[in-house]
Amino acid sequence: MTEEIQIVMEMAKEKMEKAISHLEHQLVKIRAGKASPGMLEGIMVDYYGSMTPLQQVPT
Fold first, then answer.
1. DSSP string spanning 1-35?
2. Is a pLDDT exceeding 70 seen at residue 59?
């Protein structure tokens, strides 16, 4: 029984770490006074017929 509990605890720990990582990634996009390049990370635009990340359009 304790082995099953350890497996469940390890799975829960992995999922919690992924959730924290995702939250940190999302918090970068929050504007707090001044603009940052991370705010535009998830925006895609139509560039000559293909969807391209906004950050790559100027290049």
1. -HHHHHHHHHHHHHHHHHHHHHHHHHHTTS-SSS-
2. no
Residue type for position 57 = V
CA dihedral (59, 44, 30, 26) positive or negative: negative
Query: Using CA atoms, how far apart are residues 14 and 21, in angstroms rounded to an integer?
Result: 11
pTM of the full structure:
0.50
Helix (H, G, I), strand (E, B) or coil at 59: coil
Rounded Cα distance, 28 and 37, in Å: 9
